[in-house]
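Summary for the steering committee. The consortium agreed at its last meeting that each partner would contribute one worked example illustrating the joint modelling workflow. Our contribution is presented below. We chose a case with several input lines so that the handling of multiple components could be demonstrated. No manual editing was applied between input and output; the record is shown as generated.
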Amino acid sequence: MLEILGVKKKLEYFDLQVDNLKINSGEYFIFLGLSGAGKTTLLEIIAGFRKPDFGKIILNGEDITNKPVNERKISICNEYLFPHMNVYDNIAYGIRKKKDKKRKVIELAEMLGIENLLDRKIDTLSAGERQRVAIARALAVEPEVILLDEPLNSLDRLTHESLMVELRKLNENTNTTFIHVTHDFIEAIALADRIAIIRRGKIEQCEEVEKILKNPKNEFVAKFVGVKNLLDGVIYRKNSSYVLDCGLKLRVNTEYEGKVRVGIRPENIMIISSENCRFVKDNIFEAEVVDIIPLTLSTTQVVLNVDGVELVAETVKSKILRMGLKKGSKVKISITDVSIIKAS
Amino acid sequence: MRRVFLVFFILMILSVILSIASNITPSVITKALNSKEVQFAVFLSLKSALVATILALIVGVPTAYTLARSNFALKELVDSLVDLPVVLPPLISGFGLLLFFGDTPIGKFISSYINVIFTPLGIIVAQFFIATPFVIRTVRAVFENIDPKYELVAMNLGASKTECFFNIVLPMARKGILAGAILAWARCMGEFGATLMLAGATRMRTETLPIAVYLNISIGNINLALAISLIMLTIAVLTIASIKIIVGGFNVGNIRG
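What follows is the complete predicted structure of the assembly.
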């Protein structure tokens, strides 16, 4: 287990501050935040590249805060491949035992699908190939913890997806703890066991992926994890259930009463068609389509006007085509889930 | 309009080269190359410049690394001191060295074991003193251009500081170091002022190529001086060419002086 206790570091525009964070052995942990939020600095403190002003880093019970960089069992994976070495020598750099070298390099290269690149110079590699080499090089030292600094950054969509799947597999097949830093929340949702959302050097929320998606702690987190609709409202009790009034009246699963800010994820606004009408009973509204914007090859964003409240929904493209939706179409929608962001 | 200045200066350089080359006939060259004095000067210059450059690298490269990577009190002062021999006229540097070895207790003590005053050894000391700041300047700029993260990553993979220096920093800086060495060597080949003061201008003893030009002009032997000048011109051209080939440009770091 890696513990970060009371770590503080003064940065140029703000302070990095992590009070108490425990990352379990073998966990896939992601720090999610915008660029310049202090994520890389935090990784470098864990790796020992920089010293914190206060606080401790503890690995499996041992205080490693002042341990030299080359004695920690933590390896970092970043874009700094050694330009004067070929792929083989880069991967082999951290392997101490001479007789293990060849076997291990080939093993890792095969695992990452780069066995045909071993003789290549670094500057002849594509972005995706470089990332794979960097991962192999970091794994070669058999670390307790591997730190991945934006490992999927600047990759084309196909490479991004395949490398994402491989990172997940590598984490499952080794006992290594993966700590990964990114600004891409889709990446975080796909990979992480737990996510810590970091803003201006502080952790806003740190929880399992599902919990963050369901209950974002504040508006920043909500927006970051893809909540597109944020509304003010009041929750009150009516008979045995609770009603949220946010311009629309919704039945909600909560026991909280009073003023709230709520978030509705775009995929939780369902456009009712003849196929799914049997399954929805609750929170149904009449709406008018204001705009239809394609997001990816298969998904589409639909802007809706529901009794004067504008909501953004997301649905599959085929459904839009099947229902023949266009600007001005009248539809029925159902709001299937609401996240309550309590007034802070 | 601006091109006029460029053309003016190019013409000036060309006329200098032509003035030397046009006065030389093949027979002058063959005669010079066969003369014992020229042969002596060529080999003495080649030898002393090579030894001085190697010594300058041994001292200069680690110094450059220290200056590039660490911060300490008085660094500015140390920086300026290292630069001083670049700015100071070599003649004055040589005079200083002469006074040090001939007139101070420490200098006299050293001289009682290895005599450098008016000896070929003095040539190496003078050239070393002039060339080392050059090595430090160029190599330091090369080191500063290498992101220290490479070293941290290497250490992160288990390397010690020494291993890191020898198998990450040095190989990454090799082109720049080589270019710096060639520049320093060229400087040594042409060194005159400091050599004159410390090693003297003794014919067939401390007679490097520039000293040979000086001695021959002073006794009116213009032909030999011309031939040696052509040799030095050739060396200069080769120096520029080799640096261009090695680093693909002449701008190795920021070279002043």
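The first strand of chain A starts at residue 2 and ends at 10. Chain A is about 25% helix and 35% strand.
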